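Obj.: predict assembly geometry.
Materials: sequence records (below).
Method: joint structure prediction, all chains together.
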Amino acid sequence: MNKAYRIKDIAKLSGVSTGTVDRILHKRGRVSSEAQAKVEKVLKHINYQPNLIARSLALKKNYKIITLTPSFEQGEYWAKFSEGIDKAQQELFSYNIIIERFCFNQYDRNSFDLLISRIEQAGCQGVVIATLFRESVLNLTTLLDRLQIPYVLVDAYIENTHCITYYGTHSYDSGYIAGRLLMEQIDKNDDVVVFRFIRKGDQCSTQVAKREEGFRAYFSERACQGTIQVVQIYGEKEGDNKELLTAFFNKNRQVKAGIIFNSRACLLGEYFEELNIANSLKLIGYDVLDANIKYLKSGLITHLIAQRPEVQAMNSLKALFRYLVLDMKDEPVNYMPIDVLIKENITYYNNYI
Amino acid sequence: MNKAYRIKDIAKLSGVSTGTVDRILHKRGRVSSEAQAKVEKVLKHINYQPNLIARSLALKKNYKIITLTPSFEQGEYWAKFSEGIDKAQQELFSYNIIIERFCFNQYDRNSFDLLISRIEQAGCQGVVIATLFRESVLNLTTLLDRLQIPYVLVDAYIENTHCITYYGTHSYDSGYIAGRLLMEQIDKNDDVVVFRFIRKGDQCSTQVAKREEGFRAYFSERACQGTIQVVQIYGEKEGDNKELLTAFFNKNRQVKAGIIFNSRACLLGEYFEELNIANSLKLIGYDVLDANIKYLKSGLITHLIAQRPEVQAMNSLKALFRYLVLDMKDEPVNYMPIDVLIKENITYYNNYI
DNA sequence: TTATATTATGTGAACGAACACATCGGCAAA
DNA sequence: TTTGCCGATGTGTTCGTTCACATAATATAA
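Observations (raw structure tokens):
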């Protein structure tokens, strides 16, 4: 990496023209075996690193990448993801990469399906897909495979696709960790409660289902004798959780800890403060939403488990960039760190990218 | 960020030549007020984003950046940092940025001082400084200020320099967090022990000293009644820790937890396994060294506190890149996340950058 | 042998920005 | 009027790579 050799240097050293060197470097053929040999000999002695700057200036192809994520409000999980897209956009702009964002309703599989045809029309060179709806994603990926458009998966891993790479946490293990963090705060045989947040028509996302699986695995591995109760709660403005929760806790005063596997722990926070059970119940949630941070700081939520959404966004777009522009390939599966946030380290959790 | 306007486009739109536009964009003067007005009017309507690719190709300046870090063995903390440098080097190579690594002995301040003059000779456009020796770093920074060479600080923060930016954790708070993680595993009034790792001539690094301060703060804030014992241990091959530790634990069987504020928790691990006190003592350490991981997995170390050295390296070099090439300035202080690692999430801790 | 494919090789014009240099026009002093 | 000066403006080359195109060399068919 000391001296930067140029194609011109290689040409001079091997006594051919730059065109010939170019053809050899790119395996375009139309080169005699003598020329091939001469250039290869030179290439062995030096470490040629193409100047990517010059390359992408010369290529000046336009790339359009489409991201397919849930829509979001300020401060929510997918808003953080979107911030990562912003950063990537800035960084990749000069490479003639433009990013188009398609959003679906994360509680409505149909809204995802509707976007599939729009992607085909739009015409693009790469897609980033949030894998909330397993079956629909598989439909999309077969389409993309046929169109030969590369794609990256984010959020939860889905097997049997031809994605160029995946970024996201190991959902099962992140549930397992939640189990550990919860159980170390209570006694081995205490009861716990799993809150499930169900909107009408919602079928638990891949992610959420696997987290619960991991959580239960920890529970049974340690032969905990307490029961895991389940409470279905309503989404915002869909029903009265207060009544529901009051009834539950009146009946189940022995429950010492609760957990919710999506990012909506803050929803519970509101009720717990009102019901005044904040001190008697340990609560663990997911993802660093502004609303969740508030309750983590107040102590109502003891831990948040997080997964660096900005980094996921950035990396998945950079992976497509590497694939499209630099002709490099990545590891097929990249499990992201599973971050443990507590009151004391949350202020520093800003995920530099 | 939709259409990419070029200088040529602006020139055509405002009826002047590219040269004039260029002079206006770079405030080089020699432009009539009419031309100025015409171009400014166009610039207001479009959002000109210079093509950085083309710019850096045209500028074809060579930048040399020097990194100043401790030397290291495979798997150690500064080896991780070095991996981040590798990544940055790859990414910045095409911008004609070469990185030269100067290493000092982290237990010998003099070895750092000796490098200072070498930096002046070497001639460079930027420096990354690991701030282990506070006073020596201040000497270096005044020199660099005089030479007008920009620099970035990493590791622990040092006030009153003119660094363009800082990357590292908040040392005090990271000690405070260690306190919380330790105390939640034992009773409020249990005794704990702080291990200090002293090589001859070593004066606790800025980092380590501040961590201990934060730790003690947590202890006293919570009005813990246990005592904080201190044990000085030897470095590798510098003395017999086994004897020393045996003696200590024979006398102090009531000690329930230990902590060490540098990255050498693994050193203790070896002895604890031999002495067979692994189960009775909770131990917390710093940094994700290969050797530390081993003991975290075995359960001997309960938590590791980590600070993304690869990301620190990458970001500090990118900050210099932005400053030198893109003429952008960063936030002056960037506190990195304080990561909490446990047995269950350590496998995923690979710090994507 | 000449004409025609076929393959090998070299040349030169982009890409967008930067900057050195040439040129033009106006003005003032000679 | 001519000369010199200076500010304003445009032109053209450069960066390293890519690629279309022109040319040269060779093989094949008539």
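Conclusions so far: Residues 16-20, 23, 29-32, 35, 54, 56-60, 94 of chain B lie near DNA strand D (CB under 10 Å from a C1').
To do: check interface contacts against the pulldown list.
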